[in-house]
Amino acid sequence: MSLVSLGLLVLLGQDRPLVLADLEAIDIQVASLNGQVEALDLRAAAVEAERATHQVALDAAEAALAARREGIAQRLRTFYRLKRRGFARLLFDAESPPELRRRVHYLWAVIRADESLARAFIDGLATRRATTARLEADKAALAGVQSDLRARLDTLGAERGRRSALVREIQKRPELAARVLRERGDAAIALTESMASVEATAPEAQGEASDFRAERGRLPSPVGGAIVRPFGAYTDPASGAPATNLGIDYGTPLGTPFRAVADGVVTRSAYLRGYGQMVMLQHGPYTTLYAHANGLRVAQGQSVKKGDVLGLVGNTGLAESEDARLHFEIRYNNTPQDPDEWLGAR
To answer: pTM for the complete prediction?
Structure first.
């Protein structure tokens, strides 16, 4: 008997949500780590850009120094000859006091200018080199942190692989698949109940309702890809039990961006048991829902425009399979609508 089968025997005897709680814990950890990795990648890119800027400045300083090198060398040769001749002799060869003052003033001006120029170049080069060194060290430190995070992601990936094996095993057991189907239905009921308070504000936005209603039959698809589960009743292939899909499911590659089908306000952008990472948009009394994401790009309360990226396609929550998919719903006053009647030609 495999370890997966042994695990199923244990799980069959438990009275807690079977897959949903396990998926929730893993998905939330993965989402957190993904966010940290993305933030570190952005920081690394910023550090690299700053380092490149300083490198350009360093190259420019060195180029300027090289361009002036011949002039500096000529001045050094001149000063060498003056030194051999003697500064006192140069000064006191002046034929009049005004000429003497002019020569003194000129020499001091040249010396101060050259000294200031040389110090500026030396200080500038030292600063650029020190800055470059610090940025390189920072970049190395970031690489170490990213390596650690990716190692943890690999560990979680292995756990999700074991979970996938468990789900595949569940699909072979009709009685267990039926239990999972009930859990998914319970999650949908809980969501519908929680949406009631949001929908209560719908009458205050009749203009938005008219705008959204006018798009019936013309809305763009939230993502490309084939519809792998249409709206309405179907027979669950694993358990043979009747089930209902409150939206449509798109099959599309993991990480594909999905977009808002209309202007709206984000009322949810979080992990929800059963739905995984999901986004809900309010359009007056209408709601659009996008679930099973693998990364969200909007926050609750944010206004979005039609076509804005809301997140990335994934397989979080309890999707029907382990393949990446986007679950998409349209609701009117909390009543599910068939999205196919609202979407334009694909």
So the answer is: 0.70
